[in-house]
Amino acid sequence: MSDTQFRHGKKRFYDNSKFPRGFAKSGDFTLAEEELLTLYGDTMQGLETGELMPENSEEKHFIKVIENPGKAKTKLERVWLKYIQLARGRKRFHTLNGRTKPDASEDFSEDAVLVEED
């Protein structure tokens, strides 16, 4: 990633509370996205919280993207927005049964299907 002006973090970035096994092993991030997060995540978090001041145009644009996610254009910006969504957003939960009960008059057995086809 030498084509970016973005600073590497002072330390590798991990989120052990939301992704205890690592970003890629969570199944939500690719290996490339995991590498971007671990290398640049410390800087991106510092810029987002205001602990770091932007030093170049890419970092200034990153701060604008935090305020307006529709402006994201680089991989770093998109992967940070994805991280924010997954780490701070609501976790989706899908159940196997619904709220409504099936109508008792409907017969979904295999025999009923074969009889109707004949």
Please give a structural write-up.
The structure is a single chain. It is built from four helices and no strands. It is mainly α. The longest helix is centred in the middle third of the chain and has 19 residues. It is elongated and about 70 Å long. The mean pLDDT is 79. InterPro entries: DUF413.
Return the structural class. Answer: mainly alpha
User: Sheet bearing the most strands, described?
Assistant: none
Q: Whole-number radius of gyration?
A: 23 Å
Helix content: 40-55%
Helix-strand pattern, N to C? HHHH
Point out poorly predicted stretches: none
Shape: elongated
Question: Which helices and strands, and how do they pair?
Answer:
Layout: H1 31-49, H2 57-67, H3 75-88, H4 110-117
Helix pairs in contact: 1-3
